[in-house]
Amino acid sequence: MASRVIPVEPFDLVIFGGTGDLARRKILPALYRRFVAGQFGADTRLIGAARTAMDSAAWRDLIAEALDEFTTGAGDGATREAFLAMLSYVTLDARGEEGWTALSGQMRDDRIRAFYFSVAPALFGDLAERLHLHGLIDETARIVVEKPFGHDLDSARALNRTLAQHFCEHQIYRIDHYLGKETVQNLMAIRFGNVLFEPLWNSQYVDHIQITVAETVGIGGRAEYYNHAGAMRDMVQNHLMQLLCLIAMEPPARFAPDPVRDEKLKVIRALDPVAPGDVVRGQYGGDGTQPDFRTQAGHGDSTTESFIALKAQISNWRWAGTPFYLRTGKRLRARTSEIAVVFKDAPHSIFGAEAGRHRNILTIRLQPNEGIELGVTIKEPGPGGMRLIDVPLDMTFAEALGPEEADFPDAYERLIMDVIRGNQTLFMRGDEVEAAWAWTDPIIAVWQAEQEPPLPYDTGSAGPEEALMLMHRDGRRWREIKP
Ligand code: NAP
């Protein structure tokens, strides 16, 4: 069973930063795969724009190399040529006047227009202003902006204000690529498409929730940016916060942009301030073969965290009393992302104390092996009396759907097509981003005031010991970080 492709209207997409890493690694490969799938036809224009002087042929060569590297096996030779024929390039400086008339000449009046800001956020304002000055914004125009959206509440507000001078909110697509992941959308399907879970989805039945996003890589090529940001700004304020919102939100009336985003916003606003004792920050050390964080960051006294574990509480009727434990870090034991909903014990065990403690856990795995697993308690087979064991009801998508169906599109494929469709459901609204910063800022302010260095942890570990204690002291424990 092949998945259904509903074609989008032809469009003109300008990629500012068309020579950059994100454009080569993610945006153009995603567009290519959608073209191969038949989601749009050759009557579309993909226009790269950056300062580097080059002609369209040179940009096509650059992108052809990127397709070789990042889309192995997709499409045949003719499809590839047809895709490359849609590409053109304009040399242009976001901060200068040159190139804008040439860009304007390439845009067609009767096509959907989208502008992807794949450049440093410091240039977003310049781009918005020049698009406006050069008459490039019509009623179909929309812009896509990348993370980071601000560095704190003040800068996010300033950025929202700048964009609002030239664009309406319905034209602004703030990307959080976690929302484009198939399993994250499945989380909503599981919750709101089944009657099984929703009645249990509250503090009466859920003991706690764990969200883990663990990476094995260090800060590598992003050292300068990362040393300035840290795990809290780079991961928790956006990606983990979005996962928390989707787990915790009330059922929206419709799966549509504002109903969904209204419910997410309510969750963020219901988050309690986090007590300093409920946060653990860590920084990875070297392991003989790889340098430590400070060496990689180029700052011997860096106090930036590469690991965070924290306990969040949501003060509303549904979740009061059910903690959400969030954890993310680099150079950890395995690359894995999962959400675990840990249900409470049965109110009374008819099998006696010797049957032990058994709990249902619903695990939503984002990577690797995307899928959903429900741990259930059954009788251990055999004649030896009523002994209980836990077994997983496992729905690894690749097994349940077949390898073809489970070959999920990259998050960018889904999200860019949503931009063209004009569907903002999986994009963050300005007030949502600001509310997330309003919750994050005070946590960071405490660290800045205290000037305490983060706790060291070993490469290949599960983070600092103190992160384990964060749960042990509540009589709970983290799930193992394993591949
Ligand atoms: P990058 O590799 O440094 O590319 C930056 C791009 O911007 C280049 O094409 C550069 O080309 C262009 N540029 C720089 N100054 C410009 C100017 N004044 N006018 C016009 N173009 C200009 O950065 P990137 O990694 O692709 O990241 C782009 C954006 O995506 C950033 O906001 C980043 O935070 C975000 N992001 C990236 C990733 C990722 O995996 N790479 C992930 C999440 C978010 P010229 O030098 O030729 O002008």
Task: From the structure above, extract its key features.
Rossmann fold; Dihydrodipicolinate Reductase, domain 2; 483 residues; six-stranded parallel beta sheet; 2 domains; alpha/beta; binds NADP nicotinamide-adenine-dinucleotide phosphate; nine-stranded mixed beta sheet
Give an overview of the whole structure.
- The protein has helices spanning 21-36, 56-70, 77-85, 100-106, 124-133, 153-166, 182-193, 223-248, 257-270, 293-297, 397-401, 411-421, 430-450, 465-472, and strands at 11-16, 45-50, 87-91, 112-117, 142-145, 172-174, 206-214, 279-284, 307-312, 324-329, 336-343, 361-367, 371-379, 388-396, 455-457.
- It is α/β, with parallel strands linked by helices.
- The protein has two domains: 11-146, NAD(P)-binding Rossmann-like Domain (Rossmann fold), CATH 3.40.50.720; 179-408 and 429-472, Dihydrodipicolinate Reductase, domain 2, CATH 3.30.360.
- A nine-stranded mixed beta sheet has the order 14-13-12-11-7-10-9-8-15, sandwiched between helices.
- The longest helix is centred in the middle third of the chain and has 26 residues, at 223-248.
- It is globular.
- The model has no long low-confidence stretch (mean pLDDT 93).
- The structure holds NADP nicotinamide-adenine-dinucleotide phosphate.
Describe this structure in a few short sentences:
The protein is of the alpha/beta class and 483 residues long. The protein has helices at 21-36, 56-70, 77-85, 100-106, 124-133, 153-166, 182-193, 223-248, 257-270, 293-297, 397-401, 411-421, 430-450, 465-472, and strands at residues 11-16, 45-50, 87-91, 112-117, 142-145, 172-174, 206-214, 279-284, 307-312, 324-329, 336-343, 361-367, 371-379, 388-396, 455-457.
